[in-house]
Amino acid sequence: MNDRAFLLNQIASQLFNQTTIQSFTTVVSEHQIIALVERLEHKIKLLKNAYETAQKRVKILEEKNSSLRVKLQETETELEELQKKQLIPGKNTIKSKDLGIIVKDNPSDLDTNTELKQQLDEYIRELERCITHLSSLS
């Protein structure tokens, strides 16, 4: 008698004593008990596999979370450095020699006030785009 059969006999003897088995109209056969144990073993294997898969997934997610935290820290440090650079006076202002270049580039054929106003509006829009761009960096 192998270990499985011995175990089944032990289970059967504990579950049913001789008088209980005789009182049933349907007697549980040894094959039914073996089938039940095999189903339980199969379910245990499935649960074990699901548990191992979940553990692997947790490990992967923890590693990804860790790397994202490091990346976030690096990004925050870079942001702080950029904000410090932006707060330093004189670094982002236009120097007077640059203003001379802007004035020099102004076309001399603009004679009327309307044309001058349009050109000024265009410069203002360009400045607003630059300000928006600089604001998006911080």
Question: What can you see in these coordinates?
Answer:
The chain is mainly α. It is built from five helices and no strands. The protein has helices spanning 3-15, 18-23, 30-87, 96-104, 113-137. The radius of gyration is 41 Å and the shape is rod-shaped.
Give the tags:
138 residues, mainly alpha, 0% strand
What's a quick, concise take on this entry?
The chain has 138 residues and is an all-alpha fold. 80% of the residues lie in helices and 0% in strands.
Chart the SSEs and their pairings.
Layout: H1 3-15, H2 18-23, H3 30-87, H4 96-104, H5 113-137
Radius of gyration: 41 Å
Total DSSP E strands: 0
What's the rounded overall pLDDT mean?
77
CA-based shape: rod-shaped
Instruction: Tell me the strand percentage band.
Output: under 5%
Helix content: over 70%
Quickly count the helices.
Answer: 5
Q: Describe the biggest sheet?
A: none
Helix/strand/pairing category: mainly alpha
